[in-house]
# Entry
Amino acid sequence: MRSDKGNQEISVLGRLISLEALVFLMGIASLVYGLATANAFNLIIGAAITMAAVILAFKCRRIRPK
# Structure
């Protein structure tokens, strides 16, 4: 059986992964909206959010113990 601390760590990791996915999807949504409306501001913000989410995802995966 897992201890309470083990269950807490798993739930925290689950929340972080889902938040990471949500940020990535919001960046994609902003990119699509910017393309649909030809709004350069939304394109720039969407690209920045998407790139930041990808960079942080790769950086966090390297830090995690195997």
Summary: The radius of gyration is 16 Å. Residues 8 and 14 are 10 Å apart (CA to CA). The chain has one domain: 4-63. Helices lie at 4-37, 40-63.
